[in-house]
Design a protein that fits this description.
Order of helices and strands of chain A: EHEHE
Strand content of chain A: 35-45%
Distance between the termini of chain A: 5 Å
Number of domains of chain A: 1
Radius of gyration of chain A: 16 Å
Number of strands of chain A: 3
Structural class of chain A: alpha+beta
Largest interface: A-B, 32 and 32 residues
CATH superfamily of chain A: Phosphoribosylformylglycinamidine synthase subunit PurS
Oligomer: homodimer
Chain lengths: ~80, ~80
């Protein structure tokens, strides 16, 4: 089954990439935009048929490698 | 209103970051994982009350700056 882990910086953690994007958007004339935050999404296939087992495995992967839980939070989505 | 643009490499485009993550996951013992693809998600606030106008503006931002449409595709999500 397919899974996705979305990793975002925690609230309050400075996001230089988001700041740079926001500045570039303003420069391009997109004056309406604010609070830009940049995150990543890691999508993959798991050879696993049980959704609960797949979720547990994706969470373990997020904790071990995909997210730095000191400054980032992650969200796991499982698609059948 | 809040908006999110998810940017992914198009199918068939080599994803070295995804490959590196997959290799690292295998090394850590996550043998079930395959087809890892890495993308990015840009979340922001738009000072705009009309969802259709917000979507059009987010799409313009994606085309102008957030995605390289030669090798990437993007998806816009608007949250009220």
């Amino acid at each position: 089954m397919k899974a996705a882990v979305t990793v975002r910086l925690k609230e309050g953690v400075l996001d230089p990439q988001g700041r740079a994007i926001e500045h570039a958007l303003h420069t391009l004339g997109f004056a309406n935009v604010a609070d830009v935050r940049a995150g990543k999404i890691i999508e993959f296939t798991l050879q696993e048929t049980d959704p609960e087992a797949a979720r547990a495995e994706a969470e373990a992967m997020a904790k071990r490698l995909l997210a730095n839980t000191v400054i980032e939070r992650y969200e796991v989505r499982i698609e059948p």
